[in-house]
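Chapter summary example.
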Amino acid sequence: MEHMIPKIKLNNGVEIPQLGFGTFKIEDGKPVIDAVTTALETGYRHIDTAAVYKNEDGVGTALHESGIRRDELFVTTKLWNRDQGYDSALRAFDESMKKLKLDFVDLYLIHWPTDMELISESWRALERLYKDGVVRAIGVSNFKEHHLKPILENCEVRPAANQVEFHLTLQQDQLLQYCNQQDIAIEAWSPLMQGTFGDIELVNQLADKYGKTPAQIILRWDIQKQVITIPKSVTPSRIKENFDIFDFVLSNEDMALLGQLNTETRIGPDPDDYKKK
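The structure predicted for these 277 residues follows.
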């Protein structure tokens, strides 16, 4: 079923499945192994984790035990804040690789913009990993335009992706436009607003119109916005529901109506205010 998932070509030619499976706040061990296994059996081939999620080991186990060829999988993990810096970033990457039981990852991201001097050193480390061939693409997460500019002005390898909070009430039009101009793919974390979309009447109306669930309407909107989206669930029925979004298309009129729901309201922290942890 993975052939159903459209792919986006990153700025270095690497293709990333536009729908992925997120693992934020899924407990390591059996919970994350079961969730990732269900996702892979459903047809997902893009799995997103991070060092700070503390579940890379379980994710790696599920990937290893799936029997799916490595070249059919797309795996993302992220460098945590306390590991920022050149040498510490390289050590952190090695630790992630051991836990994931992989020889390479497809996408490695700097998780948050903290101290920009350290970010510069971290980016040099990511460039080295990229040149060494243990990472297929490198990027950032939660970076605003003013965080991206210093990297773009000094890098040897341009960021391929920027994973940010993106959903109906935080559409980040300016950042999306900037990243499109810079050929940086946008990935959406928390696309389903941590389940708080249930009271949005338009979404419920469109769900009735298309014979889909509200969650499927929102994820389809992401896909048609050319945004990479990584919904998360531990419930098998919802994991499968979130995958079932490729048999319908939202009209231009309905896409525009959904676009009017933007209020620039965050669920997670503002990257400018995020404290180093």
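To summarize the output: The chain has a mean pLDDT of 96.
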